[in-house]
Amino acid sequence: MKKIPAIGILGGTFNPIHFGHLRMAEELSEALNFDEVRFIPSANPPHKPAPAVSAEHRAAMVKLAIASNSTFKFDGRELARTGASYTFDTLSSLREELGTHASITLLMGNDAFTKLNTWHRWEELLNLCHICLVARPHGASKKAEGLSKALESYRQAHYTENSGDLLEQACGCITMQKTTSLDISSTAIRHALRNKHSVRYLLPDALLEYMKLHQLYYV
């Protein structure tokens, strides 16, 4: 039977993108048999303060970071929209582009999932995609910590341990995957740069050169 197209979606401020993002995307692409992983920088994240570094710079760094991986694709649709960068709107746009039969999987950390019920139209997200939960560096747990009753019921109703289910239908499943534990954060990178500490080997060398050229995060 012909495999349906499978697309992974990794969104975020990417302020800046680093090896934690890239390695996670690589491992999930392999584990879930994605045809491509789309990196979608958020222009105006509704749950975070606006990043001091412009969307244009953050997008340019994403493009540099993924340039050598043919499976990784840059997707700038949130940068082209005005207003808040709602995941529901992004997924709706992707579904219109990719059609009803493609499998779309939203990749997110367990910690982000605990706040899913504060997202715009969150209960409708699984009508548009699957969700793959990624354990934080201390390892995966079938029982997500800190979930509201509504979210726990939502997770249980859609959960599958069979990742193959994500390739047999276009949307509707929640699954969980372990990835290599790289305890790297954009916050720590920004802090190190402000304090004139090295961030080499935390992100691609091309990004270091770009940040130096444009004096990003150094003040």
Number of strands: 6
Number of domains: 1
Strand content: 5-15%
| Unreliable sequence segments | 139-143
* Assigned CATH architecture: 3-Layer(aba) Sandwich
What CATH first level would be assigned? Answer: Alpha Beta
> How large, in whole angstroms, is the Cα Rg?
17 Å
Number of helices: 7
Helix content: 25-40%
Globular, elongated, flat, extended or rod-shaped: what is the shape? Answer: globular
CATH superfamily membership, which one?
HUPs
Main sheet specs = 6 strands, parallel
Write up what this structure looks like:
By secondary structure, the protein is α/β, with parallel strands linked by helices. The protein has one domain: Rossmann fold (3-Layer(aba) Sandwich). The chain contains seven helices and six strands; from the N terminus they run βαβαβαβαβαβαα. It has a six-stranded parallel sheet. Helix 1 links the parallel strand 1 and strand 2. The longest helix has 13 residues. The chain starts with 5 loop residues before the first strand and ends in a 5-residue tail after the last helix. About 2% of the residues have low confidence.
